[in-house]
Amino acid sequence: MDLTKEDYQRHLLQLLPEGPVWPRDPDTLLAKVLGAAAESFARLDNNAAALVREFDPRESSQLLHDWERNVGLPDECLAPATNVAERRRRVHQKLARQGGQSTAFFISLLASIGYPGCTVTEFRPFRTGSRCNSGLHQGGWRYAWRVNVPVAANVKYLNVNGRANEPLASWGDAGLACLLAKYKPAHTIVYISYAEGA
Predict the structure, then answer these.
(1) By CB atoms within 10 Å of each CB, which of 48, 98, 179, 185 scores lowest?
(2) Do both 127 and 189 map to the same domain?
(3) Cα distance between residue 41 and residue 5, in whole Å
(4) Which of 16, 38, 53 is the last residue of a domain?
(5) Structural domain range at position 145
(6) Which residue(s) pair with 189 in the sheet?
(7) Is the pTM value of this prediction over 0.85?
(8) What digits encode the pLDDT tens for the residues 170-190?
(9) β-strand 119-122 against 144-149: which pairing, if any?
């Protein structure tokens, strides 16, 4: 509970020695001098309480920049946060993220950046128990996997105003590709498959 100036003034007056030279009446000059000191104590008390709230990045405001610096934000893969709530959310996600190499980790990572409903396809070499129509030798595909994004991302088609050296179509989210490249296992290759766009 935050103490007020009046609370500190009352406590300071109670600390005075006994006797007629030390009056405890709030209207005396001594009480007013102690009231000025009490204002500083109350301000320090409020600042200390605010500092305790800064320990949680979900409530931080004055130390939010320090939180971001300590966890490596802003992330070069993501667009800059547009407001304080988004900045706080990103810091908290970065601190709470456990990391991992499982399919569940990547699906939750994608959901946290705005791609819910994604799936992961893992390619496996032919072995006993494989389907009859599976390829016998998949070479480098053994270490490849694909993220299936259920929405189209930044789909652009060439139109009549386009230049001759432009591609007929382009799609994808560079931030998503950057993030997956950062968190994927080092020995693997990740591909991204986007849904058909409108």
Answers:
(1) 98
(2) yes
(3) 7
(4) 53
(5) 101-194
(6) 144
(7) no
(8) 677 888 889 899 999 998 999
(9) antiparallel
